[in-house]
Fold Ribosome-binding ATPase YchF.
Amino acid sequence: GFKMGIVGLPNVGKSTLFNALTKTAAAQAANFPFCTIEPNVGDVAVPDARLDTLAEIAGSKQIIPTRMTFVDIAGLVKGASKGEGLGNQFLANIRECDAIAHVLRCFEDDDITHVEGRVDPVADAQVIETELMLADLESIEKRRANLVRKLKGNDKEAQQQDRLLAAAQEVLENGQPARTVEVSGEDMKQWKMLQLLTQKPILYVCNVEESSASDGNSKSAEVAKMAEEQGAGTVVISAKIEEEISQLDAEEAEMFLGEMGLEEAGLDRLIRAGYELLKLETYFTVGPKEARAWTIKAGTSAPQAAGVIHGDFEKGFIRAETIAYVDYVEFKGEGGAKEAGKMRAEGKAYIVKDGDVMHFLFNN
Ligand code: GDP
């Protein structure tokens, strides 16, 4: 599954948000109750109304949403990369994530201490980014030193690694994150394996006061501008509202959202922004037993998509019977879609589209 690490300065609302996201009725939907893997790891259901529609049409007994993992990564403060250095566990936590959700305090509240003594989310973002850049520089120096012997031995892979590490080092020394390095297609695989902290895509989560939850405030607007310049994502959330929603059942939550002038809960917006940032899509498998959603990267081929379900599906892939979501709904299910000529037989080269209803045929 895909993993989103929640980082931010102390007292910006990370834990409040994390607890709310992982406790909401939506997050706990269906047969997988929210499971705490560790106190700070939450595995949540990805809300998707299409899945309910499909299940209703097919009369599926079970609805199984796809999942996304959130990790509450506390411990980032100014100077964290100096002295003892960032803890190994802490770094490993970030490394394992596919993206970083960076929570920024955009609310004023004199009762809640700000570690820097002022509310300035853009400056806060830079404080954290700087720590991550320093940690990357330290790790690059160590890794390049370790490569020296292999480089003397003319090891091709070591040469490639060193060249990419050097490129990252150069931008970092100029105060830019590693994600600004332009990497060619041939280098991409090795580049991703470097697992630098500032390579990860960033989603800025603006934690605003309750009254600004629907439109944001001047601080979140500054963040949005910065995010756009960086090619990062932004989402406006009120952790306080999310905390309240997490206490309600689905129906009550919807009413409450309406009262607040919000169309969807923060969890939905956060996950959707995460999907966009990571270029993720969803496909479905639907039958009388279960209707299930699966997460893939955009551009995934049919066999790779089948591999998300089971490795054998990918290895023995023959073809996929495919119905677009809209056709499945319009023609009221597989039978109707088939009659209308909307069920396609797709081969190995087919690129799965968001919302496809798939049935894989494979050899084992
Ligand atoms: P963390 O250190 O980033 O995990 O921050 P917490 O989630 O523990 O929040 C720190 C304090 O700020 C707590 O007392 C929260 O109740 C409060 N807080 C969090 N979000 C908001 C918010 O949106 N508005 C206000 N006024 N207080 C908040």
Summary: Residues 299-362 form a domain with the Ubiquitin-like (UB roll) fold (CATH 3.10.20.30). Confidence is low (pLDDT under 50) at residues 30-37. The chain has two domains: 2-277, 299-362. The first helix runs from residue 14 to 23.
